[in-house]
Design brief:
This protein is an alpha/beta fold. Helix content is about 50%, strand content about 10%. A six-stranded mixed sheet has the order 5-7-8-9-6-10, with helices on both faces. A four-stranded mixed sheet has the order 1-2-3-4, with helices on one face. The chain is globular and about 65 Å long. Bound molecules: adenosine-5'-triphosphate (ATP). Adenosine-5'-triphosphate (ATP) binds next to helix 5 and helix 12. Keywords: ATP-binding, Cytoplasm, DNA replication, DNA-binding, Lipid-binding, Nucleotide-binding.
């Protein structure tokens, strides 16, 4: 658990229900954050996923937000965490990070997808299948995002091959040479979008049952099944679908039992002529840490890479999204965004949504001036974006240790101290949350990261030469 003093404490708060005059400053900020989120994502999405968030305590510079189940927490984390972090930091300078946690017994807003599983762990929906016809939906319901269709996917040079493969699988699942379909590429480039598009297309025809889940949820669900002694049921459910899609497979690295289970499921499905679709951040051959036999099988079908976006593709995506929003965004602004935000489509989309939401709220058109003003913090962060990988590399070079020791289990001080410094710098220089940082350091827990941050702060106070080292690294990284 976190240390430190509790500065502000707040409880459940509905943006529409509380009068600002009767709330604490933190609650008032929360109302504004929620309103912004609502206007960015729309009423339906807000009600489905975000309304359940409950304001928790602010301890030192870390704010906790609660969700009633692990399923919801994971979903909100994967889809909205970055946005929540940015909105909070814009709202309150004293908040440096936002942590999403599960808290049982919160007032849960009724919603089909958010009930607890049979073991009360909130994991019952982490395996989700969507049968073709609504009446034949099993007790497992899927969050296939209706916005992620082939129609809304913009095709350009970097993604045309992956798009064509996805289309082909949606038209003719289990075709020879296309099973499994392995989609890979960097963060936020459209892998999940394509998987959902395949799922939506297939279920539309009415004859195919599709199961989609992240590898992380596959693992949680598998562990929950072991705990509740229902692994047979879990296996049967999985093996009864026509199409199984697993997103972000890299999460299974280092999870040997779960990999084993996935391998058997994979074989059973492919042998029965069912389709498997997998996404990951690297190609099968580069996914070191996955069992060889699984890697080999994953590479046996069609492997399609989604490359980083080009300027032309970014412009086409922005044009399409601006058009769909119904708000006029001048082409100068679109070009400006496409030049400035080159990392991934998720960020590009987030920036555009923010501009449009701002224009709607203040009732003024989008201009280059308002763009620079509204996106000030985002663009600034872009100018000096530092990645955790860069931090790990620089710190390892500085102390002359192996890069792999950043994620290894070695505890020798010569390795552990630089690792702690890298965690500290990751917290200071990136917007990543503690659990995200932990994951990048060999799947360590967020409390380990918290401890590292505190320890390095303490040491910097006590030892000036250590403090100089850390400051030097920080300056080099900030460029
Ligand atoms: N070519 C595209 N056309 C339209 N929208 C896109 C395109 N590529 C990505 N997007 C949008 O960008 C956002 C991020 O995409 P998505 O979640 O599919 O990325 P991802 O590759 O799965 O990322 P991650 O590695 O984080 O899982 C989504 O809102 C998606 O709709």
């Amino acid at each position: 658990m976190k240390g430190g003093t509790m500065v502000e404490n707040a409880q459940y708060l509905d943006a529409s229900a509380s009068a600002p005059g009767s709330t604490t400053p933190l609650e008032t900020a929360w109302i504004r954050v929620r309103e912004k989120l609502k206007s960015e994502v729309g009423e339906v999405e807000y009600r489905t996923w975000l309304r359940q968030i409950v304001l928790g305590p602010l301890e030192e510079d870390e704010l906790t937000l609660y969700l009633p189940t692990r399923f919801l927490r994971d979903w909100v984390r994967s889809q909205y965490e970055e946005r929540l972090q940015t909105l909070w930091r814009t709202e309150r300078e004293d908040i440096k990070g936002v942590e999403l946690q599960v808290k049982r017994g919160l007032p849960e807003v009724s919603m089909g997808d958010a009930e607890d599983g049979e073991d009360g762990s909130g994991e019952g929906h982490e395996l989700a299948t969507q049968a073709a016809a609504p009446e034949s939906r099993s007790d497992l319901a899927v969050p296939l995002d209706p916005r992620f269709t082939f129609d809304t996917f913009i095709v350009g040079k970097p993604n045309e091959f992956a798009y064509a493969c996805a289309r082909r699988v949606a038209e003719k699942p289990s075709s020879p040479g296309f099973n499994p379909l392995f989609l890979y590429g960097g963060v936020g480039l459209g892998k999940t979008h394509l998987m959902h598009a395949i799922g939506t297309e297939l279920t539309r025809t009415g004859k195919v049952s599709v199961a989609y889940m992240s590898a992380e949820k596959f693992m949680y669900r598998f562990i929950a099944a072991i705990r509740s002694q229902s692994t047979m049921e879990f296996k049967e459910q999985l093996r009864s679908v026509d199409v199984l899609m697993i997103d972000d497979l890299q999460f299974l690295i280092g999870k040997d039992n779960t990999q084993e289970e996935f391998f058997h499921t994979f074989n059973a499905l492919v042998d029965a002529g069912r389709q498997i679709i997998v996404s990951a951040d690297k190609s099968p051959s580069d996914l070191s840490g996955l069992e060889d036999r699984l890697r080999t099988r994953l590479g046996c079908g069609m492997v399609a890479d989604i490359h980083a976006t080009t300027f032309e593709l970014r412009i086409s995506i922005l044009e399409a999204k601006a058009k769909a929003s119904g708000t006029h965004v001048p082409s100068k602004v679109l070009e400006y965004l496409a030049h400035k935000i080159t990392t991934n489509v998720r960020e590009l989309e987030g920036a555009l949504n923010r501009l449009i939401a701002h224009a709607d709220l203040v009732g003024r058109p989008v201009t280059l001036d308002t763009t620079q003003d509204v996106l000030k913090d985002m663009l600034k962060a872009h100018d000096r974006r530092v990645t955790i990988e860069e931090i790990q590399r620089k710190v390892s070079e500085h102390w002359n240790i192996r890069l792999t020791d950043m994620s290894s289990a070695r505890r020798a001080r010569a390795v552990a101290r630089p690792r702690q410094v890298a965690m500290y710098l990751a917290k200071q220089l990136t917007s990543r949350s503690l659990p995200e940082i932990g994951r990048k350091f060999g799947n360590r827990d967020h409390t380990t990261v918290m401890h590292a941050v505190n320890r390095v702060t303490e040491l910097m106070d006590q030892d000036t030469s250590f403090a100089e080292d850390v400051e030097l690294l920080r300056r080099m990284l900030e460029g």
